[in-house]
Amino acid sequence: MPSEHAETIDIARLRARDPQMFEAVVRTHYDRVYRLALRMLGNAADAEDVAQEAFMKVHRSAPRFRGDSSLSTWIYRITHNVCLDELRRRKRRPLIQGLPSSADDAPSGEPEDDGPTPEEAACAADERDRLRQVLESLPIEFRSVLILREVEDLSYDEIASVLKCPIGTVRSRLARARRLLAERLQRSDNHELQERLPSSAAF
Amino acid sequence: MSCKSVSHLLPLFDDPELGTEDRATVAAHVATCADCAQELATIREAQWQLASWRDVQVPATGPERVLANVKDAHASPARKGWRWRLSLQLASALAACAVVAILWGGWPTSHLVPSEFDGAAQPSPMLFMATQEEAAQSFAARSVALDATLVEPMHITVQSADPAAFVASLVDRLEELSPQLSLDVRPTGDGSFLVELPAVTQDLFSAVLAAIRSSGPVTVDANALDQLDTVWEITLFVEEQNKSH
Q1: pLDDT over threshold 80, residue A160
Q2: Closest by alpha carbon to A142, among B11, B45, B14?
Q3: What is the complex's ipTM, to 2 decimals?
Q4: Residue B189, CA atoms < 13 Å, CB-side half-sphere
Q5: For a 10 Å CB count at each end of chain A, is N or C smaller?
Q6: B146 Cβ under 8 Å from any chain A Cβ
Q7: CA A177/CA A184 separation, integer angstroms
Q8: Contact between residue B107 and residue B209 where contact means Cβ atoms under 8 Å apart
Q9: What confidence tens digit (pLDDT) does each residue in B154-182 have?
Q10: Are A58 and A75 a contacting pair, CB within 8 Å?
Q11: Nearest CA in chain B to A53
C-alpha cells in the first residue's frame, strides 16, 4: 500500500492544513480513492462525487489525524465511509441502480487502448458486468472486504483498520466472501452457458 | 483431515497472512481431495477476475477539482448554495450539561444500538442506556486534548414523519446547545436530508444525540459507540419514516 510518494508527505504539515501538503496528499491518493469508490459504487459519476467528498473530509479532519494508522489507511477509511453513505442514499433513490452498466469504466471518454479486438472487448465487458452484478448481490460487508483485498491489495491488518473490526473478523469474512463470490460466479457462468445452448435448455 | 476442517482455510490459501502450518494442512488435503482442489481452483479464478478490477481509468481532472473545491470552501465558509453553516457559541460546557440534564432528567451517555449497515430496516425503540459510571467516563473524556483524539465517523439514520420540520427543529436545538458547533445541512433531492457535524467531542456527542431525539418523534439507528477519547464526525441521514419499506 505505501506509495512511492508516501515519504514526501509531512504529517505535521498536513495537520496544519498546509495547502502544498494537502495537494501532495490529493495527488498521491486520488487514484486509489477514486478506484475504491468506483468499485464500491459501480459507476464513474458517483465515484467522482465520492472522491470529492472524501477529500473534503480529509481536509477538514486533517488537524485531528493522529497517525495511529497510516495515512492511506485513514484515507481509505474515510472513503469507505463516504461510500456507505452514498449506498444508503441510493437505497432511497432506487432509480440510480438502473444506470446502464456501461457507465462504469469510461469516466471521460478517453480512448481505449487498441489492444483487444471488438469481440474480445465485448466479451471482457460482459465478464466485467457479470462480475459487478454478482458482487452487488453480495452483502455489503463481503463486497467491502473483497474490494479492499483483491482490488486495493490491502493486508488483513490494514483492512481491519479501515473497517474498524478485529483481524479475525477480516479473516473469516474474507473466507466466506471469496467462497460466496466463487459460487455465484460459477452459477452465473452455468446460467450463461445454458442460454447459449438453447437446445439443452429447452428440455 | 476432513474437508470440513479445512473449509475455513481453503479460501485463504494464497494469502501470505495464512500461517505456514495452516497452509501445509490445506495443501496436504487438497493433494488428496479432488472436490476441494476443484473448489480452490474456482476461488482462485474468482480472485483473479476481481484483481482485473485494479485497472481503472481515473478522470485526469479529479485532483484539480478537489483542490478547487477545497479552495472554494475556504474562500466562502458561509452560505454555499442550499447549505447552512452555523457557527454557534455557548457559554460553557456546563451549560451543555445543563441542557442535557433537562432533556434527559439525568446524565445520558450514548450507547446507541449497534446496527448492521442495513440495520435501518429494524429501528430500535431503545436508544440510550446510561449509567453513572458511563457519565463519569464521559466527563473525563472532556479533558482529553483535542489533537490527541481520534476522529471517528458516526453514521446515524433518523426516520421522521416530516424530515424538513425535523431538521429545522434540530438546527434550533443545536443552536441553543453548541460550543462552536458547525453544521451543514443538505437536502438529497428526494425529501431526505444529510446533516453533517464535523467535530463533536464525546461529551457534546451525548448532548447532540439528545437534541436529535428531542427534535421530533423519531427512530434513530446508529453504529456502535465505544471510544471516549474521540472526536466524532457525525453524518445524519434524515429520511421520511417508512419510506423505504
Answers
A1: yes
A2: B11
A3: 0.77
A4: 5
A5: C
A6: yes
A7: 11
A8: no
A9: 677 777 888 888 888 888 777 777 655 66
A10: yes
A11: B66
CA atoms within 13 A on the CB side of A33: 31
Strand-pairing partners, residue B201, are B231
Q: Which residues of B touch A27 (CB under 8 A)?
A: 63
Residues in chain B: 245
CB A194 within 8 Å of CB A148: no
Q: Which residues of B touch A89 (CB under 8 A)?
A: 188, 192, 194, 237
Identify the DSSP state of B112.
Answer: P
List helix spans (H) across A94-153: 118-137, 140-146
Q: Which chain B residues are Cβ-neighbours of A60 within 8 angstroms?
A: 198-199, 233
Residue B39 touches partner A, C-beta closer than 8 Å: yes
A92/B192 CB distance under 8 A? yes
CB pairs under 8 A between A and B: 171
Check if the beta carbon of residue A82 is closer than 8 Å to that of residue A41: no
- Please indicate, yes or no, whether the overall pTM of this predicted structure exceeds 0.80: no
Indicate the residue of A39, A106, A131 with minimum beta-carbon distance to B57.
A106
Q: Do B43 and A146 touch (CB under 8 A)?
A: no
Mean pLDDT for the stretch of residues A66-88: 85
In angstroms, the CA A133 to CA A155 distance is: 25
Q: Is the pLDDT of residue A145 over 90?
A: yes
How far is the C-alpha of B81 from the C-alpha of B186, rounded, in Å?
9
* Mean pLDDT estimate for chain B: 65
Task: Categorise residue B31: left if φ over 0, alpha if ψ from -120 to 50, beta otherwise.
Answer: alpha
Whether residue B145 lies within 8 A of chain A, CB to CB, comes out as no
Q: Which residues contact B213 (CB under 8 A, 6 or more apart)?
A: B103, B127, B128, B220
In the numeric block, which cell numbers belong to residue A174? 474474507
CB A162 within 8 A of CB A77: yes
Instruction: At B31, list the grid cell.
Output: 493433494
Would you call A130 an interface residue with chain B, using a CB distance cutoff of 8 Å?
A: no
Alpha-carbon gap: B198 to the closest alpha carbon of chain A (Å) = 8
Pick from A35, A64, A174: CB nearest B56: A35
Of the pLDDT bands very low, low, confident and very high (cuts 50, 70, 90), residue B224 is: very low
Closest CA to A78 of B114, B205, B201, B155: B155
B15/chain A closest Cα distance in angstroms: 9
List of chain A residues whose C-beta atoms are within 8 Å of the C-beta of residue B244: 91-92
B70 alpha-carbon distance from chain centroid:
23
Residue tagged 477538514 (cell numbers)? A60
- Does residue A113 sit at the B interface (CB-CB below 8 Å)? no
